């Protein structure tokens, strides 16, 4: 069990619901295809599933995630500080996730598809136009 993470979730639960008894938490990191985080309350237990990309995140980000998830499940307002902290971490984790997603591709490890410039796209469009003219009209039209 992730005891520091468990403590964070219990503290955030207490902050959002000061008089309610704290339910037992089941917190796990899962290998999701994106930065998914889920929370469910079933049979008195709080089941939390976090993306494995968030595991190395600092404690402040874990606290923000705990606050956001617990606030959402109980329909409480989310503190702007926590929302901002989580959004900033998402940008960092998304870049790390993109590298992991494309790491199986040959060529540039960790990179996505090569970007093209507008001029190379125009040349390709011109070439396509010429090709279509040649095939369809047999070169009868002149530009």
How would you characterize this protein structure?
The protein has 143 residues and is α+β, with helices and mostly antiparallel strands. The chain folds into 2 domains: 3-101, Zincin-like (2-Layer Sandwich), CATH 3.30.2010; 116-143. It has helices spanning 3-16, 59-73, 80-101, 118-137; strands spanning 25-30, 37-42, 45-51. It has a 3-stranded mixed beta sheet with strand order 1-3-2, with helices on one face. 16% of the residues are buried.
Biggest β-sheet strands, sense, barrel? 3 strands, mixed
Kindly identify the CATH topology of the largest domain.
Zincin-like
- What is the overall pLDDT average? 79
Residue runs with pLDDT of under 50 for 5 or more positions: none
* Content of β-strand: 5-15%
Number of strands: 3
The chain-level structural class is alpha+beta
**Widest sheet: strand order?**
1-3-2
Overall structural domain count: 2
Helix content: 40-55%
Name of the CATH class of the largest domain: Alpha Beta
Listing every helix as H and every strand as E from the N terminus to the C terminus, the arrangement reads HEEEHHH
Give the radius of gyration: 25 Å
List keywords for this structure.
143 residues; alpha+beta; Zincin-like; 3-stranded mixed β-sheet; 13% strand
